[in-house]
Amino acid sequence: MILVTGATGIAGSEVVRAVRRRGERVRAFVRDPQRAREKLGDEIELAVGDFADPRSVRAALEGVDDVVLSCADDPRRVAWETSAIDAAAAAGVRRIVKLSAVGAAPGSPVAFWDWHDRVERHLTASAVPGVILRSSFHMTNVLAGAEQVAGAGRLYAPAGAARIAMIDPRDVGAVAAAVLSTAGHDGRTYVLTGPAAITYVQVAAALSAATGRAVEFTDVPDHDAKQGLIQAGLPDVVAEQVVQVFAMARRGAAEQVTATVASLTGRPPRDVAAFARDHARLFAPAAVGAGR
Ligand SMILES: NC(=O)c1ccc[n+]([C@@H]2O[C@H](COP(=O)([O-])OP(=O)(O)OC[C@H]3O[C@@H](n4cnc5c(N)ncnc54)[C@H](OP(=O)(O)O)[C@@H]3O)[C@@H](O)[C@H]2O)c1
């Protein structure tokens, strides 16, 4: 039995799907069962709970062999994830696969990456063998700008000329499932990227090709980007960190391309053209006001 936390999230839900495709038993740790059913279907076993409620975490771990640990970018993540690791150790879990980020490092200017580093180190020091999957920037981040792409043909981001080896989260799910179903990964840290380091001009070109309508990238100053994210509903602290992620990317922090997805799953990572085609409906003019 594999427990996936953050299972209603972008990466967590892809892990659930990929693990199921491999025929493994999976239990999803979720806060909202209705949202989970909508996202994951009716057949997935649910453990309803919250990282902040240790009893619910312990209950979810009953009878579990492996855990995929995913969580939101929240200032409480270190406390939540380290407690879950301790609970998994106490429950006799045999392996934890932690979803982390490229850039995870102590004292990183991106708080998300500092938090990931702290959880990684806690896992490494724990009694449970761990596998760390450090993903590059998710292609799904581009969906945050879908409405403006659909409405005005403009892709806004504070990306400048950053080259980003962005990855489709479906490939993160596929790697997690592969790691869980084969031996020899305990103690390893894998860096997961897409097939190429690309600029936002190239992302806009892929969206143009997929929607059949010109999409242009517009660089945005950090301050304006942060205000836009706050207006879109992100907490101040998260908006600040998202802007920091782009600042680091402009300095080359997301350029590295690895062959890990292909070597672990047996197929190349999806490229941005495939991502754009598969989500074209959300970026096309008809999506405006269509209640996506
Ligand atoms: N986005 C990127 O570019 C990127 C790149 C590299 C690594 N990562 C990492 O990948 C991981 C997953 O990212 P994601 O985009 O899939 O995140 P996400 O879509 O924001 O999902 C976060 C998940 O955590 C759940 N969650 C939040 N608070 C919780 C709580 N108190 N108790 C239980 N569950 C809780 C959420 O549940 P609800 O649905 O109930 O809110 C959701 O399922 C994160 O650690 C992130 O740092 C992201």
Strand arrangement within the widest β-sheet reads: 3-2-1-4-5-6-8
Oligomer: single chain
CATH topology of the largest domain: Rossmann fold
- Form type: globular
- Sketch the major β-sheet: 7 strands, parallel
Question: How confident overall, as mean pLDDT?
Answer: 96
Number of strands: 9
Q: Helix amount, in percent?
A: 40-55%
CATH class of the largest domain: Alpha Beta
Number of DSSP helical runs: 13
Count of distinct structural domains: 2
Set out the fold topology.
Blueprint (H helix, E strand, L loop, with lengths): L1 E3 L5 H12 L4 E5 L2 H8 L4 E4 L5 H7 L5 E4 L7 H14 L4 E7 L9 H15 L4 E6 L10 H7 L1 E4 L11 H13 L7 E4 L7 H12 L4 E4 L2 H10 L4 H15 L9 H6 L6 H7 L1 H4 L9
Parallel strand pairs: 1-2, 1-4, 2-3, 4-5, 5-6, 6-8, 7-9
NADP nicotinamide-adenine-dinucleotide phosphate (NAP) binds next to α1 and β5.
Defining traits:
Rossmann fold; two-stranded parallel ribbon; 45% helix; single chain; 2 domains; UDP-galactose 4-epimerase, domain 1; binds NADP nicotinamide-adenine-dinucleotide phosphate; 7-stranded parallel beta sheet; alpha/beta; 292 residues
Describe the structure.
Helix 8 packs across helix 12 (272-278) and helix 9 runs antiparallel to helix 10. The mean pLDDT is 96. Strand 5, helix 5 (111-125) and strand 6 (130-135) form a beta-alpha-beta unit. The protein has two domains: 2-135, NAD(P)-binding Rossmann-like Domain (Rossmann fold), CATH 3.40.50.720; 140-164 and 195-256 and 265-287, Alpha-Beta Complex (UDP-galactose 4-epimerase, domain 1). It has helices at residues 10-21, 33-40, 54-60, 77-90, 111-125, 146-152, 169-181, 200-211, 222-231, 236-250, 260-265, 272-278, 280-283, and strands at 2-4, 26-30, 45-48, 66-69, 95-101, 130-135, 154-157, 189-192, 216-219. The strands form two sheets. A seven-stranded parallel beta sheet has the order 3-2-1-4-5-6-8, sandwiched between helices. It is globular, with a radius of gyration of 19 Å. It is α/β, with parallel strands linked by helices and 292 residues long. The chain binds NADP nicotinamide-adenine-dinucleotide phosphate (NAP). NADP nicotinamide-adenine-dinucleotide phosphate binds next to helix 1 and strand 5. The site of NADP nicotinamide-adenine-dinucleotide phosphate has 25 residues, from helix 1 and strand 5.
